[in-house]
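This section describes the prediction task in plain terms. A model, or a person checking by hand, is given the sequence of a single protein chain and must write out its three-dimensional structure as a string of tokens. No templates, partner chains or ligands are provided. The sample shown here is typical of the held-out split.
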Amino acid sequence: MTNPFPHLRQDFTASLVVFLVALPLCVGVAVASGVPAELGLVTGIVGGIVTGLMRGSSLQVSGPAAGLTVLVFEAVHQFGLPVLGVIVLVSGVLQMAMGALRLGRWFRAISVSVVEGMLAGIGLVLIAGQLYPALAAEAPGSGPGKIAGLPGALADALADTDALASLAVGAGTIAVLVLWRFAPAPVRAVPGPLAAVGLATLAAAALGLPVATVEVQGLLGSVQPPPLSAFGELAGIGVLGTVVAFTLIASAESLFSAAAVDRLHDGPRTEYDKELAAQGAGNTICGLLGALPMTAVIVRSAANVQAGARTKASRVLHGVWLLLFAALLPDVLGYIPIPALAGILVYSGAKLIPVRALAALWRESRGEALILVVTAVSIVVVSMFEGVLIGLAMAIAKTAWEASHVRLEFVDKGAGPVEAYLSGNATFLRLPKILDSLEALPKDRPVRLDLSGLHHLDHACRTALESWAERHSSAGTEPVRLTAAR
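The expected answer:
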């Protein structure tokens, strides 16, 4: 008889590893987003059990992601927790609709520089924002304010014993995460994030450190489905803009993560439209439960693959372990120090900044590197949504400029007409340069302008060239002869 679960052993082991990686990250993302810690676990449970059961990417793991922390915090601060559920719900429905319309593959057409710039901007804001809880200080509201206020917050912390204890826990957590890869192989069997939080929790309890800890409300107490009145907020431009931002960013991050995970294993490839629909189904349920939005998370997904997972059973089981933990051991969360979670997110934010990739990109294409930097800086200075729009606008403008490459050559044999040849793509973007070159030609010589080498001639260029041809020749000179474009 054929074994219906031939890879159960590998998947069971991998699910435990992913659970141990996901647990501190779910809690940390929730706390940094300004919502009860249990809601991060709810999103992790839905990502594991609901999205995990659906088709799309067999080894990719979903849950609350550091990449959306900034946007979620802004949404909760501006609109309130009940409206967050509505935003997540509508975003999930839009994702399912895009999956049904087979739009998933088009997300792969988004400029990689914009996506990496988006992640870098999130990383910068995440680092700046999470340094404040590590310093036992209140974070300013704006991105520039967070960065500008750090020196003052650090100076205040150095004069405060409680703040110094908090800083020591946060710094110690980051140190464990950085150095964990140098630990002996048997020790590294414990995931770094879990080890860092566990050690920080033990140190804070054993030494009696005066640090803030996670507030525990209980799973059922935290789950608050959005009331019907909250749906009326969808009439506001700000809420609709946030829905669009959630939808596009969560979808792009999930599908880019899927492409990265596909490179880590030899199993079935991702079905992008089905994966987008699966993400949408998960976010719809998260919205109904008033929880955090989800995306596919590369850290958990990579841990899943590296732990030997073979089928989707591993990610479903990890959701089951999260559910059992949230139901049976929620009080354990109350012992976790806030600065330890801040340290994990500072470390996660640093990994979002592609320093090496930026250096390589600068050597290959300075235009793409500039798009990445401007997108990241715009997210820090303005906001997530506007920063991504600025990056997309720059990418489109750069593509349009490069696509409008045109070449103008002159052949002047000293006698007879001057021959001018235009080739490439003549668009309004290059029109000033084309006209400057043509208007410099002598008006007392006949001119033949050959447009047959053009692949594209837009209306603005055609009209301008015809007008130039009509007015160029002086009296008594043969009119300009135009050879039509193909």
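For orientation: The first strand starts at residue 62 and ends at 63.
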